[in-house]
Design brief:
Elements (H helix, E strand, L loop, with lengths): L14 E11 L5 E2 L2 E2 L14 E9 L10 E11 L14 E7 L14 H5 L3 H8 L6 E8 L12 E13 L4 E7 L11 E2 L5 E2 L12 E3 L11 E4 L2 E9 L7 E4 L6 E2 L6 E3 L11 E4 L1 E6 L1 H11 L9 H11 L5 E5 L3 E2 H11 L2 E6 L4 E6 L8 E4 L10 E4 L7 E8 L11 E8 L14 E3 L8 H15 L4 E8 L10 E5 L15 E12 L2 E11 L7 E5 L3 E5 H4 L8 E7 L3 E8 L8 E7 L2 E3 L11 E5 L5 E6 L9 E4 L4 E5 L1 E3 L7 E7 L20 E2 L21 E2 L7 E2 L50 E4 L5 E4 L6 E2 L6
Parallel strand pairs: 4-5, 24-30, 26-28, 33-35, 34-36, 35-37, 36-41, 37-42, 38-44, 39-46, 41-48, 42-49, 44-50, 45-47
Antiparallel strand pairs: 1-4, 1-7, 2-3, 5-6, 6-9, 7-8, 8-9, 10-21, 11-18, 12-15, 13-14, 13-18, 14-15, 16-17, 19-20, 22-23, 25-29, 26-27, 29-32, 30-31, 31-32, 39-40, 43-44
Helix pairs in contact: 3-4
């Protein structure tokens, strides 16, 4: 017999549908008191033993089917499948509505209570509704085609759409309406909270003393395997529990007021402050995410909300996250119960992923949003797209050329005001803002998040701007069933005479993501109304990304949207500067990738200068013969930073002359290694009983951006009168134009070391003072092949780099 797919290309097609609903029955003895029952858990005193009966209904005009007990009563089918909401995370859930004609008969023929009189009195669906609880029962709508030879394969020739029943209601014209909902609603996402409320209460008052470490708790809550709890605004890390589930249960907690860190990742989870609490106060058991992947957390939430784990394709989810979020882990305490919908949206939004239920595959789907995603199919007007059915509609509400998220909440008990978060990540595309293009930025402000780190935050804003910087368009069209070879969530190429390129020819690079496919059921068979949202053209080899804001600690892999396959990407570093301990690095590009850096408009590539070392701090010790002794020895300078670390990714760098870019044909920029910090000096007052003690002088900072700071002078302290204690001289800061800071100098002590100029080491403090630090590095290859174009002594200063 033929499968559904094998008959897809039939030129002439005859369609029909079969509705199946699984309902619980009792096939053995069934009585209600002294009377016979009707074979359902509602109408039998006997216990149900997990038996089901499948009831089947088909269209009134369906062909003759090779099976009995398929009732020809369906008059209308209205299906509104799931719809993706890119950028919003959680899809709009699907629904199904079927109208059925009622008829004389009985759904439970064969049970003792269904006598001949009962069988003919009332109606089939009316009695079905009276004997069953329809809500949340499994519903399948099967879409069939008659084979070319007129045969029908009821067992394997259908495409099945999966739903769960919501209600069965009678209408005023003798018909019934079966309302069905998305299978994802099994989790009752609007009715459940997560983490599930699993906490108890304090048995007695406790004070705010940091040494109060035994927390008396209730006897009804299981506190075993608890990592942390929250009482009011205070978090406590649990080390053990004594007398669990007894009237003397006690939580033993770590020093109160201490920072709480994750045991695996070592990440700071929250800061907290000891507080007093009263008997009866809630003890909320926090859920821990410790280096947890996105798919793992989503899975835990859905399963805890009663979603069937068998409907989650764990391997597919893990592969999607590993491909598009390989470096992102979740480290946090989930410290308050929230609506499951809200929790899912928060996670999906900040990681820019879509979650929906696929009614055909009967699986929950998870997909990342990235402009690197390539199309999996091409559809053409006149074939997959019915001629003249394609329409478009601008979705300007999604457009954003600038995006911002605030993150890193140090104390999870703080409110969600911006002031509770310490970091921000921004991305903008300034190249499309002009009188000729968009006149002003349109911004996307994400809700502040305690779930993400710096990499995920940078990736979020980059991916959103890349996807939505041009006004997205929603495309709609009609497809006949034999040409429906794509699915919801697919990225496709659209080819239509209605979509023209600038030359007037049909556009050849328009991509869109299918967001919804709605079957349209009619007397003439099925067709499909399709929706897709334009997907900004894919980044390809030699795509140019312009960076025209200061670059501090950036990763080019993240700024490119974290491609999952080998690529060549050109970055235009335009007219600003770089800074940071490692100002720029390649990141985790797939093997075989290449980066091209074109420096234009006098881009100034620098990194942080090294800090100067402190001079000796000395202390007066009367018990040591009244001598000045060393408290802290002279400090060493610190090394300058790295301007660019290729991290094993082959890189071409253009400093001057001709480039590979049409838009930026001439390079004009610099990379200059920062200087190292100078060493601090010793103090000549050590081991002497001089009335006056002089602290050592401190080293100068290295040149760089940010500049290396000269340290404060070494301190002189102790019981000597204040006018006989003199601190050392501070070193000077380096500057951003290439000069290291001068070390502190005084007549009483040796001179401290100077900070290094661009690419130079700092010098040591005189007469055995602290060492001067090595210079920073211009470019570190780290295993890559890095090629320079147009470099010279003024354009490139190496320091301790690879060149």
């Amino acid at each position: 017999m033929a499968s559904f797919e094998s008959t897809r290309t039939q030129y002439v097609q005859e369609h029909f549908e079969v509705l199946e609903i699984d309902l619980p029955v009792i096939t053995g003895a069934c009585t209600v008191g002294a009377s016979d029952g009707f074979g359902t858990p509602l109408t039998c005193d006997q216990a149900w033993t997990n038996e089901y009966k499948t009831y089947k209904f088909t269209n009134q005009n369906a062909p003759i089917l090779p099976a009995s007990n398929i009732y020809r009563v369906i008059t209308t089918v209205r299906e509104n499948p799931t719809e993706l909401k890119p950028g919003s995370g959680l899809s709009a859930r699907g629904s199904l509505s079927i109208t059925l004609n009622d008829f004389i008969g009985d759904p439970n023929i064969g049970t003792a209570g269904v006598t001949a009189d009962v069988e003919t009195q009332g109606t089939f669906i009316g009695k079905l509704n009276a004997r069953q609880i329809i809500e949340n029962k499994t519903v399948r709508l099967k879409l069939y085609r008659v084979e070319s030879d007129g045969t029908i394969d009821l067992s394997g020739g259908a495409e099945t759409h999966y739903y769960i029943a919501e209600s069965l209601k009678s209408n005023d014209n003798g018909t019934w309406s079966l309302q069905c909902k998305d299978v994802l609603s099994l989790a009752n996402l609007n009715e459940k909270t997560w983490p599930p409320t699993a906490g108890g209460f304090l048995r007695q008052d406790i004070d705010d003393a940091p040494t109060t470490l035994a927390i008396p708790v209730d006897e009804t809550t299981d506190y075993s395997n608890v990592f942390a709890v929250r009482i009011g605004d205070e978090f406590m890390k649990v080390t053990s529990v004594t007398d669990n589930l007894t009237a003397t249960a006690v939580l033993n907690v770590f020093a109160r007021g201490s920072n709480i860190t994750a045991p695996v990742s070592g990440e700071l989870l929250t800061r907290t402050t000891p507080d007093s609490h009263s008997a009866g106060d809630e003890v909320f058991i926090c859920d821990l995410s410790d280096d947890e992947t996105i798919d793992s957390l989503l899975t835990r939430i859905l399963i805890a909300s009663d979603f069937d784990a068998a409907l989650i394709p764990a391997a597919d989810w893990a592969a999607e996250v590993a491909e598009w979020h390989p470096d992102d882990k979740i480290n946090t305490l989930h410290s308050e119960a929230e609506d499951v919908n809200d929790v899912l949206v928060k996670i999906l939004t900040v990681f820019l992923m879509d979650l929906w239920f696929d009614q055909v595959d009967n699986l929950a789907k998870l997909s990342a949003i990235s402009v690197w995603k390539q199309s999996s199919a091409a559809i053409t007007e006149g074939k997959e797209i019915d001629a003249y059915s394609l329409k478009d509609n601008a979705k300007d509400a999604l457009r954003a050329s600038r995006a911002l998220i605030i993150y890193d909440k140090k104390n999870l008990a703080d409110n969600d005001d911006v002031s509770s978060y310490s970091k921000a990540s921004r991305s903008s595309d300034n190249q499309i803002i002009s009188e000729a293009l968009y006149k002003e930025h349109k911004e996307k402000l994400f809700a502040s998040s305690a779930l993400i780190g710096v990499n995920a935050a940078d990736l979020l804003v980059q991916r959103y701007v890349s996807r939505f910087k041009f006004t997205p368009y929603n495309y709609t069209w009609t497809t006949q069933e034999r040409f429906l070879t794509f699915k919801t969530g697919d990225v496709i190429d659209l080819n239509s005479k209605c979509i023209q390129s600038a030359s007037g020819l049909p556009s050849g690079d328009l991509r869109a993501q299918v967001t919804k496919i709605s079957p349209r059921y009619g007397n003439e068979g099925r067709s499909y109304n399709c929706h897709a949202l334009s997907y900004e053209a894919a980044f390809n080899d030699n795509t140019e990304i312009v960076l025209d804001t200061p670059l501090g600690g950036i990763t080019f892999y993240t700024l490119a949207g974290a491609p999952s396959q080998a690529v060549t990407v050109t970055f235009i570093l335009k007219g600003t500067y770089s800074f940071g301990a490692v100002a720029m690095k390649a990141g985790s590009f797939p093997a075989g990738s290449k980066i091209i850096l074109i420096l234009v408009d006098q881009f100034d590539g620098q990194a942080n200068g090294g800090y100067g070392g402190t001079g000796d701090s000395i202390i007066w010790e009367p018990e040591d013969g009244g001598n000045w002794d060393i408290d802290l020895p002279a400090g060493n300078g610190s090394m300058g930073g790295i301007v660019y670390d290729a991290e094993g990714v082959d890189t071409d760098i253009y400093f001057s002359g001709a480039t590979t870019s049409l838009a930026y044909p001439t390079a004009d920029g610099y990379i200059r290694a920062p200087g190292g910090g100078g060493g601090g000096s010793v103090s000549n007052s050590v081991n002497t009983s001089d009335l006056t003690g002089y602290g050592g002088n401190s080293g100068g900072g290295g040149a760089g951006r940010s500049v290396g700071l000269g340290a404060a002078g070494g301190a002189a302290q102790g019981s000597k009168p204040i006018n006989r204690r003199v601190d050392g001289i501070a070193g000077q800061n380096g500057d951003i134009i290439g000069t290291g800071g001068i070390g502190g100098s005084s007549a009483q002590n040796p001179t401290a070391g100077d900070g290094g100029d661009w690419g130079q080491a700092g010098t040591a403090g005189a007469l055995g003072g602290g060492t001067g630090a090595p210079a920073g590095s211009g470019v570190k290859d780290s295993g890559a092949t890095v090629t320079f174009f147009g470099d010279n002594a003024s354009r490139y200063i190496n320091g301790n780099g690879s060149h």
